[in-house]
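RECORD TYPE: inverse folding
INPUT: structure tokens
STRUCTURE:
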């Protein structure tokens, strides 16, 4: 196991923008690290994510404190990196646009709100087609408000809606969660 991890973390990659990463090491990292589940994201993050400073910070909303640590904080943006087995290619059932991106954008909006930033930048690496996708946008405070109100409603005993089912597959709380049964 140690040797495998060293081999995965040992390669250096040049990349830029929306390019296909045809270095076989990325495929290897996806395949092997996938068996380690949460490690895949850590490994690909280490090799591919943009480098920006970050800190833990929190902000009050209603009677809550909303806390977070983005993957990076720039002058006027927050940065978030993800990896996935989904793709934006038509042959895959789950497109990134309809699955990982909305979830990550919601997270990035909340970070942008916490850190008073104007924009968010999201990069998602697809293990399906070894491609790095990038999106940027202006913070949407309406979306932040909707998300936080949803948390509040659930915490106050309202109906908890299950997420899209793929979220539950790798969730570390799934063994204790009853909501997933309605997914
Ligand atoms: S298993 Fe439960 S907590 Fe985890 S993503 Fe699914 S519904 Fe949410």
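DESIGNED SEQUENCE:
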């Amino acid at each position: 196991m140690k040797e495998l991890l060293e081999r995965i973390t040992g390669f250096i990659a040049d990349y830029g923008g929306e390019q296909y990463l045809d270095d076989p090491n990325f495929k290897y990292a996806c395949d092997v690290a996938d068996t380690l589940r949460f490690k895949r994201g850590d490994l690909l993050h280490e090799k591919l994510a943009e480098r920006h400073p970050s800190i833990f910070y929190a902000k009050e909303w209603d009677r809550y404190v909303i806390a977070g640590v983005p993957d990076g904080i720039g002058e006027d943006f927050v940065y978030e990196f993800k990896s996935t087995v989904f793709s934006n290619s038509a042959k895959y059932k789950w497109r990134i646009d309809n699955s990982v991106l909305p979830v990550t954008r919601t997270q990035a909006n909340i970070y942008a709100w916490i850190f008073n930033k104007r924009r968010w930048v999201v990069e998602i690496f697809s293990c399906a087609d070894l491609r790095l996708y990038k999106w940027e946008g202006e913070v949407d405070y309406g979306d932040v408000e909707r998300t936080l109100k949803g948390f509040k409603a659930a915490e106050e005993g309202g109906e908890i809606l299950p997420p899209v089912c793929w979220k539950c597959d790798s969730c570390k709380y799934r063994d204790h969660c009853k909501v997933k049964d309605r997914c």
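NOTES: The chain has six helices and six strands.
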